[in-house]
Amino acid sequence: MKKLLLASALFLGHAAQAQKLTATERKIVASVQRNMPNSEQLLEQVVNINSGTLNVKGVREVGTVFQKEFEALGFKTEWVAMPVGMQRAGHLVAERKGSKGKRLFLIGHLDTVFELDMPAGKFTRLNDSTATGQGVNDMKGGNVVMLAALQALQANGLLKNASITAYFTGDEERGGKGPEARADFIARAKQADVALAFETATNLHTVATARRGASTWQLNTFGTASHSSGIFKPGVSYGAIYEAARILTDFRETLSQEQYLTFNPGLLVGGAEVNYDETKARAEVVGKTNIIAAAATVSGDLRFLTEAQKEAARTKMRAIVAQNLAGTRAEITFTDGLPGMAPTPGNQKLAALADQTSRDLGHGPVAAGNPGSRGAGDISYVAQYLDCLDGLGASGKGAHAAGETINLREFPMLVERAALMIYRLTR
């Protein structure tokens, strides 16, 4: 009897929520549900194609699959080529021109972190609600969420006169160097009103109104090589390794408690001689326990919410680097990467739309997540130009690691939400 009452309550709850959808919106949801087997089949197809950033052929192959799907929806498609020396696949763009509603810029990426020589499995169902595979949620799942949402709209004749650009970069996980890598991406985004990015959803109830930016730094320290028995004596160098350790400790003690700011020394080498190849992230080191280290190199990242926070952190880091131990010197250089995506009132309005849409569907509330829980993403390149919302893609666990999963139970719900958000924005 209790189970019957619970089932009845759930049915009545969903029925009540459904009343908040228009007749057209209920048709959109029905189309999403009918097409879900095809959506999952497409997801399996693209997951089974390796598209590590440096596997140019694989990235293009995945892009070609999506290109055909978008052309079937009446989108005009093209590939934006990158300079040959960049060794990147380029970007896939699909566009529909119109004058109705907001002009949308939808963001995905074709590449994954899984290169050909890395362990990563094919698409595999673990149970009724979970599947695993390379890039299954980051972000091939997100790409399919976007496409499936548009397919549901097209099935009901609702893409007519909508202005939508779907932009799939080919090197989000390992961006090409130089302004050319995102010049076209930024230029097209500036022509839109709203950007929606389909990176991994933290869960069904969280979206991203802000994302941290990411940059890198390299610290080089120098000492004077001599016999280790003299260390700590007047006139004898403390050595490059102690100087590097001092700086890293001061970084941690001075900056580690600031909200949204993180910095990680990912590589450290030191000794009598150091030869560091930055392009390959490899080093050759020569040293002995009885020789004071003459050189050390540390490479790391710096993540931040705003440009002001980034610059303030760099200023403090430079000051720490300048306070050298006896007989040592140090220098630090910074390289910009992805900018930060700061929270804005416009972004919050989009989050409110996601929340209302989810509630109307009966899927529960949606709130803006903690920016500190996410890494950087392509949307940050354009966040200063238009209202933005991210985290609209597939949900799952273990992104960037072997065993990455997608939540298949939430997958259709996320497609429904995306479809109705796009529909409401383009009215």
TrEMBL record:
Domain Peptidase M20 dimerisation residue range list: 209-326
Give yes or no: UniProt keyword Hydrolase.
Answer: yes
Q: Which UniProt keywords apply?
A: Hydrolase, Metal-binding, Signal
Q: Which GO terms describe its molecular function?
A: hydrolase activity; metal ion binding
Q: Which domain of life is it from?
A: Bacteria
Q: Which InterPro entries does the protein's record reference?
A: Bact_exopeptidase_dim_dom, Peptidase_M20, Peptidase_M20_dimer, Peptidase_M20A
Q: Does the keyword Signal apply?
A: yes
Signal peptide residues on this chain, from the entry's feature table: 1-18
Q: What is this protein called?
A: Peptidase M20
- This chain's source organism reads Hymenobacter glacialis
Q: What is the lineage of its organism?
A: Bacteria, Pseudomonadati, Bacteroidota, Cytophagia, Cytophagales
